Amino acid sequence: MKPPRLNRKLVLEAPQRVPDGAGGFAESWSPLGEVWARVESRTGRETSGEATPLAQVSYKITLRAAPVGSSARPRPEQRFRDGPRVFRINAVAEADEAGRYLTCFADEEVIA
After folding, report:
1. What is the pLDDT along the chain (112 residues), one digit of tens a residue?
2. What is the C-alpha separation between 75 and 32, in angstroms, rounded?
3. Closest Cα partner for 28 from 16, 19, 11?
4. pTM to 2 decimal places
5. I need a labelling partner for 32 at 20 to 30 A (CA). Which of 12, 17, 83, 99 fits?
6. Using CA atoms, how far apart are residues 39 and 46, in angstroms rounded to an integer?
7. Nearest Cα residue to 104 out of 70, 73, 67
8. DSSP string, 22-49
9. Are the CB atoms for 81 and 89 separated by under 8 Å?
10. Exposed, middle or buried, 66 (CB in 10 Å: 0-12/13-18/19+)?
């Protein structure tokens, strides 16, 4: 496998439940670290949101692998951030037999 060109810096974020002061919880995101990645668009479609139409685009994001169990290894409940853009991680798989790279399948939703 030819090494991928990792040319975008992304922030890996994990969800945290924070008490809302009224007996419930709110979700916030905390950064786990920065990774260099290759981001490739796959497919796109328009969906209906609660108030406005949304455009949903699927991405294949390739990055250097981290050991299983490491906080640097992405998981499906996490997301990547690139400035104002957010990529929700749906699945993570090894990109090569040697386990040097990971492929994350992610979605980005934007107001259409």
Report:
1. 688 899 999 999 999 988 888 888 888 999 999 999 999 998 877 776 666 777 788 999 999 999 888 888 999 999 999 999 999 999 999 988 888 999 999 999 776 5
2. 12
3. 16
4. 0.83
5. 99
6. 20
7. 73
8. SSSEEEEEEEEEEEEEEEEEEEEEEEE-
9. no
10. middle
